[in-house]
Amino acid sequence: MAEFPSVILAMGRSYMFECPRCYYRAIVAGGLDSSFHCWVQTIVCYDCKALHDVPVRVRVRIEEPHGTSAASQTRSSILMPRTEVPEVSNLLNRLFVTLAKEFRWVNYKLRCPKSDTHRIEPWREPGKCPRCNTQLERSLTPYRIWD
Ligand SMILES: [Zn+2]
Ligand SMILES: [Zn+2]
């Protein structure tokens, strides 16, 4: 299981939700939210008795593409004259730049960020307080907006 990149959790649009009875507060998206780089789903954890935003889909840069196969290496060695080293490094640089622009989506299974064993469910506003089951009140404006 890949670790959640913590910076991802700060993306998207979040609201302050507050419980009028027990004063529990959470700053979460309030459902499924997507930004350019990730989709975030708000969950309720019955073990933490808290709401969490967790990434469900994250766009990641491809570091080592599957295309780095023996075939492409063979083709490269045919195309590149061994004596001309500068040309080879130029080609490699160009290859690297091209690859760095490629992204793919990684899907995550919904889970509590604290523990795999916690019982969780997707949470969507309007929803109940994870502590006292009172309906949470949402702030009118986004608490923070990041992309
Ligand atoms: Zn409450
Ligand atoms: Zn939990």
Descriptive account of the structure:
- The structure is a single chain.
- This protein has 147 residues and is α+β, with helices and mostly antiparallel strands.
- It folds into two domains: 1-62 and 104-147, no CATH class; 63-101, no CATH class.
- Helices cover 18% and strands 32% of the residues.
- It has helices at residues 70-79, 85-100; strands at 12-18, 25-28, 32-34, 38-45, 50-61, 103-107, 120-122, 137-138, 144-146.
- The strands form two sheets. Strands 3, 4, 5, 6 and 7 form a five-stranded antiparallel beta sheet that branches. Strands 1, 2, 8 and 9 form a four-stranded antiparallel beta sheet that branches.
- Strand 3 (32-34) and strand 4 form a beta hairpin.
- The longest helix is centred in the middle third of the chain and has 16 residues, at 85-100.
- It is elongated and about 65 Å long.
Task: Give a short overview.
This protein has 147 residues and is an alpha+beta fold. It has helices spanning 70-79, 85-100, and strands at 12-18, 25-28, 32-34, 38-45, 50-61, 103-107, 120-122, 137-138, 144-146.
Keywords:
single chain, 147 residues, alpha+beta, 2 domains, five-stranded antiparallel sheet, four-stranded antiparallel sheet, elongated, binds zinc ion
SSE layout:
Layout: E1 12-18, E2 25-28, E3 32-34, E4 38-45, E5 50-61, H1 70-79, H2 85-100, E6 103-107, E7 120-122, E8 137-138, E9 144-146
Antiparallel strand pairs: 1-2, 1-8, 1-9, 3-4, 4-5, 4-7, 5-6
The structure holds zinc ion (2 copies).
One zinc ion binds near residues 47, 48, 114, 115 and 118.
